[in-house]
TrEMBL record:
Organism name: Romboutsia ilealis
Domain PTS EIIA type-1: 37-141
Predominant location: cytoplasm
Enzyme Commission no: 2.7.1.-, 2.7.1.69
Pfam families the UniProt entry points to: PTS_EIIA_1 (PF00358)
Gene Ontology cellular-component terms listed: cytoplasm
Top EC class, one word: transferase
Name used for this protein in its record: PTS system glucose-specific EIICBA component
GO biological process: phosphoenolpyruvate-dependent sugar phosphotransferase system
Localization of this protein: Cytoplasm
Single GO term (MF): kinase activity
Matches recorded under InterPro entries: Dup_hybrid_motif (IPR011055), PTS_EIIA_1_perm (IPR001127), PTS_EIIA_component (IPR050890)
Keyword set, alphabetical order: Kinase, Phosphotransferase system, Sugar transport, Transferase, Transport
Length: 167
């Protein structure tokens, strides 16, 4: 019996760790269906979640590599370590702000960890000049049958066990 225990001892260490997905800001975690833009709320681009930010500091919800920082600073894409394409869209109709109201802390091809600072949003300015200041996270390449499950309500940036992808 001891021989078999030792033989298979390492299997637990070889199990694939589930990718961590965390809230990207402090505030209220909400279902993507509540985003005031049909492209997001109807999940045309994929499933995800949104937040009502209280401080405008946006952190990486996943570990991965920055693929794109839009010139208008209103969106960032990340390729996660698990191969998920993650679109972080900062507000609704914010492309029209032409970068005003956003301070970017990352660049393309940069590696990021969960919780690394990405962008600082001027929430007050954005709320006055755009349709919504809600940061939105969309997983654009989920497998068939996968969806985003979240614990709605108050959340802190980087907090664990609030968001997961389920089959």
């Amino acid at each position: 019996m001891s021989f078999f225990k030792n033989l298979f001892k390492g299997n637990k260490e070889q199990e694939v760790k589930k990718e961590q997905i965390v809230p990207l800001t402090n505030g209220e975690l909400v279902n993507i269906s509540q985003v005031p833009d049909e492209v997001f709320s109807s999940k045309m681009m994929g499933d995800g979640f949104a937040m009502k930010t209280t401080d405008g500091m946006i952190v990486s919800p996943v570990e991965g590599t920055i693929v794109t920082v839009f010139p208008t600073k209103h969106a960032v894409t990340i390729n996660s370590v698990d191969g998920r394409e993650v679109l972080i869209h900062l507000g609704v109709d914010t492309v029209n702000l032409k970068g005003e109201g956003f301070e970017i802390f990352v660049e393309e091809n940069q590696k990021v960890n969960v919780g690394d600072k990405l962008v600082k949003m001027d929430v007050e300015f954005i709320e006055k000049n755009a349709k919504s200041s809600m940061p939105i996270v969309v997983f654009t390449n989920l497998s068939e049958g996968e969806s985003v499950k979240l614990v709605e309500g108050t959340a802190k940036a980087g907090e664990l066990n609030k968001i997961e992808i389920v089959k």
